[in-house]
Write a structure and sequence with these properties.
single chain, 289 residues, alpha+beta, 2 domains, five-stranded antiparallel beta sheet, three-stranded antiparallel beta sheet, globular
């Protein structure tokens, strides 16, 4: 990917954030977009550390607005990272190379971030990249939920993120998390594995046999109202595969996945998924009636 194209894509991501948040991102917020979207590409979420031109380590105590962003901005960031990977013969650019790409952009006059300007940042580095192994496809994760635990399984990793299959049973203790006889929720969700890396979620087992309860390459869904050149999302919406194939869905599927009720999300942060598990399982049970 040429330098000009890289800068154009980074500027598009920045402007998408600005349109949603009502103002340009801070350096912290801009880097968090890449941290949150990096799990599908790298062995662990990439946490960036910035050093300013005066030698001090950058920090921003203000509350981040990244959690307010819609699904599309994270999909665009993941696509950007995947595009860099494709140019490198199928493997991702190194974390350090990515940090250098972002450093050049944030120091440009075009970026004009909310709290730094051209030349203010002398160095971007990766804090702890690769130190914690990410869960593999087939690993079973225990997710805490109001005094109980849910079991989820890593179904796939692709440009949409980490696909997690949810089992409907609430387990009373961590030791009891064994989903072999639990009902599987029909639709996996896309999220990240940050909560595994920070220790909030636990890897409690591995069973590739349970993967057969879920699609191997889970789709994301698009609202019928979405307008995109060259695509028709039909009367009820459409599903898109990780390979980019798009198919129209009917009203039954739109209702089951939550599009017709407005409850569907293309992706969840790990924290928000943890908070949403009860509602997701409840919706799935109702759709099965």
């Amino acid at each position: 990917m040429s330098g000009e194209r890289v800068n154009a894509k980074l500027m598009a991501i920045l402007l998408e954030f600005s349109d949603t948040a009502g103002g340009r991102p801070s350096l912290k917020e801009f880097l968090e977009l890449f941290q949150w979207s990096s799990e599908a590409i790298y062995s662990a979420p990439l946490e960036f550390e910035a050093t300013l031109a005066d030698g001090t380590v950058y920090s921003d105590p203000a509350e981040s607005r990244v959690s307010e962003m819609g699904d599309s901005v994270f999909t665009d960031v993941a696509d950007f990272l995947a595009g860099l990977s494709d140019e490198e013969g199928g493997g991702p650019v190194s974390p350090n190379d990515l940090a250098n790409i972002l450093l050049e952009f944030v120091n440009s006059e075009a970026a004009n971030l909310a709290d730094v300007s051209g030349g203010d940042v002398s160095r971007l580095s990766i804090a702890g990249a690769g130190r914690v192994a990410r869960p593999k496809v087939g690993d079973i994760l225990a997710v805490p939920a109001d005094g109980a635990w849910y079991a989820v399984i890593v179904v796939a990793r692709n440009r949409f993120g980490v696909a997690l299959g949810i089992f409907g049973e609430r387990f009373r203790s961590l030791d009891a998390v064994h989903p072999e006889r639990s009902s599987a929720c029909r639709f996996p969700v896309y999220s990240d594995d940050t909560e595994v890396v920070n220790g909030s979620w636990r890897v409690v087992g591995r069973d590739e046999g349970l993967l057969s309860a879920f699609p191997a390459e889970p789709e994301i869904y698009h609202l019928p109202s979405l307008t995109f050149p060259g695509f028709d999302f039909g009367e009820f919406g459409a599903a898109e595969s990780p390979s980019g194939a798009v198919r129209l869905i009917d009203g039954t599927e739109a209702s089951a996945v939550g599009i017709s009720t407005g409850s569907y999300r293309q992706a969840f942060t790990g924290k928000f998924l943890q908070q949403s598990l009860d509602d997701l399982v409840k919706h799935w049970r109702q759709s099965e009636l």
